[in-house]
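Archive transcription. Copying these from loose printouts into the bound notebook so they stop getting lost. Printout 1 of 2:
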Amino acid sequence: MSDSSILPPARLNPEAELARDALSTPLLSRAARLARWAGPDTRVDAGGGLVDEQLPAAAAELGLTGDDAAADASEAWRAAVDAGLVDVVDEEEGTVTAGDALAALTAGAPQDVLEVWLAALESVLADASVPDLGGLVDAIADGEGSGSSTSTRWTGTPTPRPTSWTGYWGTCTC
């Protein structure tokens, strides 16, 4: 006897509710705050990341404290750049301006907000899928593990990963 029950389709909330929820997620709200904070004195490196000297001010703007404040501010800035909330105007001088996506968050339709949120999500997922080669090299140099260019097996201490993205992206109410 087989169980042939069919799961009902998932029903998403209306776009306006989803857009409101997207705006309240920590990463997108932080990225938007940094995009509004950025001005003519904001400087970025060749990759579009905030220069180290500006990370403490960015963290303070977000109300972040502690050991991870600069890293969290840097991640929010990276999401702002990748989602189009901030545009790098001159790579050589490292100057930025507000991106078109910032206006979409404040004056756009719910679909526009969701597109910006999706761009930020894709950015974070892409960054998360890139291995931390610097950490691997440091661990091998410190004698904490071994590996080779022909081996896919790592024998060092694994890096802990988040067990839940709920607090990071908000709560899904599908």
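Printout 2 of 2:
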Amino acid sequence: MKELDEPMESFIISVSLKNEITKCINGIGGILNSLVDILFEINIIDSETSLLIKVLIDGAVLGIIGLL
């Protein structure tokens, strides 16, 4: 029975690790989007550029998560 428990524990650890990495990547994307908001608010970039950068960030985050 011990032989069956080890692969299951390994799978659970793998899924847990993937979930934590996904949370970290989402957090980084959120921070980058907030920085874009700040740049927009202090008139460094315009609204169209802000939207474009946010779409690129979100696409990159989803792409990276998709690779996991």
